[in-house]
Amino acid sequence: MTESITMRTEGQKERVTQRGLTLWLTGAEETMRLGRSFGNVAARGSVLLMRGGLGAGKTTFVRGFAEGLDCREDVQSPTFTYVLEYLSGRLPLYHLDLYRLADEAVGELDWLDEYLFGEGVAVVEWSEYLGGYAPEDALFIHFMASEERDRRLVTISAAGHTACEVFAAWVSEWSS
Ligand SMILES: Nc1ncnc2c1ncn2[C@@H]1O[C@H](COP(=O)(O)OP(=O)(O)OP(=O)(O)O)[C@@H](O)[C@H]1O
Ligand SMILES: [Mg+2]
User: Fold this and answer.
1) pLDDT at residue 151 is higher than 70
2) CA of 170 to the centre of ligand 2 (A)
3) Where does this one sit in the cell (predicted)?
4) How many CB atoms lie within 10 A of CB 8?
5) 34 CB under 6 A from ligand 1?
6) Percent of the chain clearing pLDDT 90 (strictly above)
7) What is the pLDDT of residue 17?
8) Number of folded domains in the chain?
Protein backbone atom coordinates (compact mmCIF):
# COMPACT_ATOMS: atom_id res chain seq x y z
CA MET A 1 0.00 0.00 0.00
CA THR A 2 1.44 3.35 -0.93
CA GLU A 3 -1.03 5.86 0.36
CA SER A 4 -4.06 6.11 2.57
CA ILE A 5 -6.59 8.89 2.88
CA THR A 6 -9.65 9.15 5.05
CA MET A 7 -12.15 11.97 4.61
CA ARG A 8 -15.31 12.61 6.51
CA THR A 9 -17.73 15.39 5.70
CA GLU A 10 -20.94 16.22 7.48
CA GLY A 11 -23.84 16.35 5.00
CA GLN A 12 -26.84 18.58 5.67
CA LYS A 13 -29.25 15.76 6.41
CA GLU A 14 -27.13 12.69 6.72
CA ARG A 15 -23.55 11.91 7.42
CA VAL A 16 -21.63 11.33 4.21
CA THR A 17 -18.47 9.34 4.59
CA GLN A 18 -15.79 8.71 2.02
CA ARG A 19 -12.68 6.64 2.33
CA GLY A 20 -9.96 5.83 -0.16
CA LEU A 21 -6.65 4.15 -0.74
CA THR A 22 -4.18 3.56 -3.58
CA LEU A 23 -1.96 0.51 -4.06
CA TRP A 24 0.30 -1.17 -6.60
CA LEU A 25 -0.43 -4.72 -7.71
CA THR A 26 2.19 -6.86 -9.43
CA GLY A 27 0.91 -9.74 -11.54
CA ALA A 28 -2.58 -11.11 -12.14
CA GLU A 29 -2.39 -13.33 -9.05
CA GLU A 30 -2.09 -10.27 -6.82
CA THR A 31 -5.14 -8.72 -8.50
CA MET A 32 -6.98 -12.01 -7.88
CA ARG A 33 -5.97 -11.78 -4.24
CA LEU A 34 -7.36 -8.24 -4.04
CA GLY A 35 -10.63 -9.50 -5.54
CA ARG A 36 -10.71 -12.46 -3.15
CA SER A 37 -10.26 -10.17 -0.15
CA PHE A 38 -13.25 -8.07 -1.25
CA GLY A 39 -15.30 -11.20 -1.89
CA ASN A 40 -14.57 -12.29 1.67
CA VAL A 41 -16.08 -9.14 3.18
CA ALA A 42 -18.76 -8.07 0.65
CA ALA A 43 -22.25 -7.63 2.07
CA ARG A 44 -25.70 -8.12 0.57
CA GLY A 45 -26.38 -5.05 -1.59
CA SER A 46 -22.70 -4.19 -2.08
CA VAL A 47 -21.95 -2.54 -5.43
CA LEU A 48 -18.41 -2.37 -6.83
CA LEU A 49 -18.03 0.08 -9.69
CA MET A 50 -14.88 -0.66 -11.70
CA ARG A 51 -13.05 1.49 -14.19
CA GLY A 52 -9.91 0.92 -16.23
CA GLY A 53 -9.07 0.39 -19.92
CA LEU A 54 -9.02 -2.80 -21.96
CA GLY A 55 -6.94 -5.46 -20.22
CA ALA A 56 -6.55 -3.38 -17.08
CA GLY A 57 -7.47 -6.30 -14.81
CA LYS A 58 -11.19 -5.89 -14.06
CA THR A 59 -12.26 -9.43 -14.98
CA THR A 60 -9.19 -10.82 -13.21
CA PHE A 61 -10.35 -9.01 -10.07
CA VAL A 62 -13.86 -10.48 -10.45
CA ARG A 63 -12.39 -14.01 -10.70
CA GLY A 64 -10.79 -13.51 -7.31
CA PHE A 65 -13.93 -11.84 -5.98
CA ALA A 66 -16.03 -14.88 -6.95
CA GLU A 67 -13.57 -17.14 -5.13
CA GLY A 68 -13.88 -14.94 -2.04
CA LEU A 69 -17.65 -15.43 -2.16
CA ASP A 70 -17.09 -19.19 -2.47
CA CYS A 71 -18.64 -19.35 -5.94
CA ARG A 72 -17.94 -22.68 -7.59
CA GLU A 73 -18.48 -21.50 -11.18
CA ASP A 74 -15.69 -20.21 -13.43
CA VAL A 75 -16.10 -16.52 -14.13
CA GLN A 76 -16.42 -15.68 -17.83
CA SER A 77 -16.41 -12.22 -19.36
CA PRO A 78 -19.99 -10.98 -19.85
CA THR A 79 -19.01 -8.53 -22.58
CA PHE A 80 -21.55 -9.90 -25.06
CA THR A 81 -24.38 -10.40 -22.59
CA TYR A 82 -23.99 -7.36 -20.29
CA VAL A 83 -24.54 -9.53 -17.22
CA LEU A 84 -23.75 -12.99 -15.86
CA GLU A 85 -25.11 -14.32 -12.58
CA TYR A 86 -23.19 -16.65 -10.28
CA LEU A 87 -25.47 -18.08 -7.63
CA SER A 88 -23.45 -20.82 -5.93
CA GLY A 89 -21.62 -18.62 -3.40
CA ARG A 90 -22.33 -17.00 -0.05
CA LEU A 91 -24.31 -14.26 -1.85
CA PRO A 92 -25.57 -14.00 -5.44
CA LEU A 93 -22.91 -12.38 -7.64
CA TYR A 94 -24.01 -10.21 -10.56
CA HIS A 95 -21.14 -9.50 -12.93
CA LEU A 96 -21.94 -6.68 -15.32
CA ASP A 97 -19.79 -5.50 -18.23
CA LEU A 98 -21.14 -2.37 -19.88
CA TYR A 99 -18.41 -1.99 -22.51
CA ARG A 100 -20.85 -2.34 -25.39
CA LEU A 101 -23.10 0.28 -23.85
CA ALA A 102 -20.75 3.06 -24.91
CA ASP A 103 -23.05 4.28 -27.65
CA GLU A 104 -26.38 3.25 -26.18
CA ALA A 105 -28.70 4.79 -23.62
CA VAL A 106 -28.19 3.30 -20.19
CA GLY A 107 -31.69 4.51 -19.24
CA GLU A 108 -33.18 1.95 -21.61
CA LEU A 109 -31.84 -0.97 -19.60
CA ASP A 110 -34.93 -1.63 -17.51
CA TRP A 111 -33.32 -4.67 -15.82
CA LEU A 112 -30.42 -2.67 -14.40
CA ASP A 113 -31.92 -1.77 -11.00
CA GLU A 114 -32.69 -5.42 -10.35
CA TYR A 115 -28.92 -5.99 -10.17
CA LEU A 116 -27.69 -2.69 -8.77
CA PHE A 117 -30.24 -2.62 -5.95
CA GLY A 118 -30.85 -6.36 -5.69
CA GLU A 119 -30.34 -9.11 -3.15
CA GLY A 120 -26.81 -9.92 -4.19
CA VAL A 121 -23.51 -8.17 -4.88
CA ALA A 122 -23.01 -6.31 -8.16
CA VAL A 123 -19.58 -5.83 -9.73
CA VAL A 124 -19.58 -3.61 -12.79
CA GLU A 125 -16.91 -3.35 -15.51
CA TRP A 126 -16.93 -0.10 -17.51
CA SER A 127 -19.07 1.46 -14.80
CA GLU A 128 -18.43 4.93 -16.21
CA TYR A 129 -21.19 4.18 -18.71
CA LEU A 130 -23.72 4.15 -15.86
CA GLY A 131 -23.43 7.93 -15.65
CA GLY A 132 -26.14 9.27 -13.35
CA TYR A 133 -27.56 5.76 -12.86
CA ALA A 134 -24.60 4.78 -10.69
CA PRO A 135 -25.67 4.04 -7.10
CA GLU A 136 -24.45 6.62 -4.58
CA ASP A 137 -23.56 3.97 -2.03
CA ALA A 138 -20.76 2.10 -3.75
CA LEU A 139 -17.14 1.02 -3.79
CA PHE A 140 -15.08 2.41 -6.67
CA ILE A 141 -12.12 0.48 -8.01
CA HIS A 142 -9.99 2.08 -10.70
CA PHE A 143 -7.26 0.06 -12.44
CA MET A 144 -4.50 1.93 -14.21
CA ALA A 145 -1.81 0.43 -16.43
CA SER A 146 1.82 1.29 -15.84
CA GLU A 147 5.04 1.22 -17.84
CA GLU A 148 5.66 -2.27 -16.46
CA ARG A 149 3.47 -4.84 -18.19
CA ASP A 150 2.46 -6.73 -15.05
CA ARG A 151 1.96 -3.79 -12.70
CA ARG A 152 -1.28 -1.93 -12.08
CA LEU A 153 -1.97 1.11 -9.95
CA VAL A 154 -5.32 0.62 -8.26
CA THR A 155 -7.36 3.26 -6.51
CA ILE A 156 -10.07 2.05 -4.18
CA SER A 157 -12.62 4.30 -2.57
CA ALA A 158 -15.99 4.02 -0.94
CA ALA A 159 -18.92 6.41 -0.61
CA GLY A 160 -22.05 5.90 1.44
CA HIS A 161 -22.74 4.06 4.66
CA THR A 162 -22.83 0.42 3.48
CA ALA A 163 -19.83 0.70 1.18
CA CYS A 164 -17.77 2.42 3.88
CA GLU A 165 -18.54 -0.40 6.31
CA VAL A 166 -17.39 -2.94 3.74
CA PHE A 167 -14.32 -0.81 3.01
CA ALA A 168 -13.37 -0.77 6.69
CA ALA A 169 -13.81 -4.56 6.90
CA TRP A 170 -11.71 -4.94 3.75
CA VAL A 171 -8.84 -2.82 5.17
CA SER A 172 -8.58 -5.25 8.12
CA GLU A 173 -8.86 -8.22 5.78
CA TRP A 174 -6.19 -6.93 3.38
CA SER A 175 -3.70 -6.00 6.06
CA SER A 176 -4.09 -9.25 8.03
N1 LIG B 1 -1.23 -6.89 -12.13
C2 LIG B 1 -2.13 -7.40 -12.99
N3 LIG B 1 -3.44 -7.36 -12.68
C4 LIG B 1 -4.36 -7.87 -13.54
N5 LIG B 1 -4.09 -8.40 -14.73
C6 LIG B 1 -2.81 -8.47 -15.08
C7 LIG B 1 -1.78 -7.98 -14.24
N8 LIG B 1 -0.62 -8.18 -14.86
C9 LIG B 1 -0.90 -8.76 -16.02
N10 LIG B 1 -2.20 -8.96 -16.17
C11 LIG B 1 -2.85 -9.56 -17.35
O12 LIG B 1 -3.64 -8.56 -17.95
C13 LIG B 1 -4.86 -9.13 -18.46
C14 LIG B 1 -6.04 -8.48 -17.78
O15 LIG B 1 -7.21 -8.95 -18.39
P16 LIG B 1 -8.66 -8.73 -17.82
O17 LIG B 1 -9.57 -9.56 -18.69
O18 LIG B 1 -8.70 -8.94 -16.36
O19 LIG B 1 -8.85 -7.18 -18.12
P20 LIG B 1 -10.21 -6.31 -18.18
O21 LIG B 1 -9.92 -5.06 -17.44
O22 LIG B 1 -11.36 -7.14 -17.70
O23 LIG B 1 -10.36 -6.00 -19.72
P24 LIG B 1 -11.67 -5.71 -20.59
O25 LIG B 1 -11.99 -4.27 -20.47
O26 LIG B 1 -11.23 -6.07 -21.98
O27 LIG B 1 -12.79 -6.59 -20.08
C28 LIG B 1 -4.78 -10.63 -18.20
O29 LIG B 1 -4.24 -11.27 -19.33
C30 LIG B 1 -3.81 -10.72 -17.02
O31 LIG B 1 -3.12 -11.95 -16.95
MG1 LIG C 1 -13.17 -7.67 -18.56
Assistant:
1) yes
2) 23
3) Cytoplasm
4) 10
5) no
6) 77
7) 60
8) 1
